[in-house]
Design a protein that fits this description.
binds guanosine-5'-diphosphate-alpha-D-mannose, binds manganese (II) ion, alpha/beta, seven-stranded mixed beta sheet
């Protein structure tokens, strides 16, 4: 790690925490104009950008203007552009971005349709850029943009390939933006992530970093598009470990809107760790599919037990139990495993029919193949597990390719 870890990202952070903590949020914008100052020469300026700032957005409509205004104020003397990658937000964040980019060529927007996910959006933004250096940061102003010039200097003038803006540097910083529950969770997840890393960083979960674009280009084919942890993924997927430097900053409270980090994101994060530990053999989606399948098994057994208590004959009870398990698996997979390709309305019902049909083939495939193996190797538990694995893989492959195929 290079020795830039010395001081905090400068000047504005203190004024900021004061402003952020003030009881009148309206005054927060006061020193920044609502519309970003469009420099007169911005329109004629044909120099290529040296720095692209990639900002994933999902329902951030009120944060875009203040953020671009601050970038203009901070990045004086650097040729920069900002690329927003919006997952088709219901609040029409993309409209504001489009309107701004018509006045300011530094602003670009990608509308990302039929997909959801921070990491995938960031990757798409980075790959759409040609600048040699790219930064990733949040739209909600929790990341201190005044760090950017320093990060840019570090990456341009030292051997660092990647600069992480860290919340956990020395001396410890305030993390005002965290809820009380999140801070220990974040520290735990950071600890797990650090064990995976070839090169150390104090904040592998940071959503705020700057990197030479070539590093991401090299890692791109191996990156997972799910979840939040793009930095961790770049670090663990790079063919050779990048040289890392760090700057400290205070994680600020959100300006407008709310956080999208939910239990599902945490699951995806754990999934990414499993994927990395298994050399990408077990993907986060497959892991979720298996978890849903295990819940389905519990539903099956519970319904079977209840119906048998009710004096139904075994075949009838078993049929209802299987139907409940299929319904539970389908609904949960639709809501969680394939939430980026979720089927709604009529497509929900047709999908259920397709899923049930394909799963019944899965049962035949599992029973057939494991019986064949049993004839050769009669270990009931081994062949039982083998049958379940074959069924699960069949169901997973057909679900991904047919029921929830990417459109
Ligand atoms: N395109 C897109 N798609 N953007 C998204 C999505 C998505 O599915 N989900 C979130 N975003 C955007 C938000 O609009 C915001 O600009 C940024 O990604 C971060 O989302 P937040 O919802 O504000 O995340 P957070 O503040 O709770 O989490 C922060 O801390 C994490 C570590 O604890 C972020 O900095 C994370 O990047 C970081 O990993
Ligand atoms: Mn945030």
């Amino acid at each position: 790690m290079s020795g830039f870890n010395d001081d905090m990202c400068p000047a504005l952070s203190e004024q900021w925490s004061r402003r952020m903590n003030s009881s009148q949020p309206e005054t927060m914008h006061a020193p920044f104009s609502q519309d970003p100052p469009v420099r007169k020469d911005a329109q004629e300026d044909a120099s290529p950008p040296a720095l692209s700032i990639i900002i994933p957005t999902f329902n951030e409509v009120d944060n875009i203007r203040p953020l671009v205004g601050r970038l203009h104020e901070t990045l004086v003397g650097i040729e920069w552009e900002v690329i927003f990658v919006d997952d088709d937000s219901a609040d029409h964040t993309i409209d504001i971005i489009r309107r701004m980019s018509l006045q300011d060529r530094r602003v670009r927007g990608i509308r990302h349709v039929n997909r959801r996910g921070l990491a995938g959006a960031c990757l798409e933004g980075i790959l759409s850029s040609s600048a040699p250096i790219v930064a990733v940061m949040d739209a909600d102003l929790q990341h201190d943009e005044t760090c950017l010039p320093k990060m840019f200097r570090m990456i341009s003038t030292t051997s660092a390939d990647l600069v992480v803006a860290t919340r956990y540097g020395e001396p410890p910083q305030h993390v005002d933006g965290f809820t009380r529950l999140r801070q220990p969770g974040s520290i735990l997840a950071t600890g797990i992530a650090q064990r995976l890393l070839p090169t150390p960083t104090s904040d592998p979960m940071s959503g705020f970093f700057m990197v030479k674009r070539g590093i991401v280009e090299a890692a791109a084919p191996r990156l997972s598009l799910h979840g939040f942890k793009i930095l961790l993924d770049i670090l663990t997927s790079s063919p050779s470990p990048p040289t890392i430097a760090e700057v400290n900053y205070d994680f600020r409270p959100r300006l407008h809107g709310e956080s999208k980090l939910d239990a599902m994101i945490v699951m995806e994060y754990l999934g990414l760790i499993v994927a990395k530990l298994t050399g990408d053999l077990i993907t986060p989606r497959f892991l979720m599919f298996c978890i849903v399948g295990s819940i389905g098994l519990a539903v099956h057994l519970a319904v079977l037990r209840l119906l048998l208590l009710d004096d139904l004959s075994f075949p009838v009870a078993q049929t209802f139990a299987m139907m409940s398990a299929v319904l539970s698996n389908y609904t949960l997979n639709n809501a969680l495993t394939y939430r980026d390709r979720r089927r709604r309305g009529w497509r929900y019902l047709t999908g259920l029919a397709v899923f049930s049909l394909l799963c019944s083939f899965g049962v035949f495939a599992g029973v057939g193949l494991s019986t064949l193996i049993y004839d050769q190797e009669p270990y009931w538990w081994l062949d039982g597990i083998g049958g379940a694995v074959i069924g699960a893989v069949w169901n997973y492959v057909t679900s991904s390719a047919i029921t929830w195929r990417a459109r």
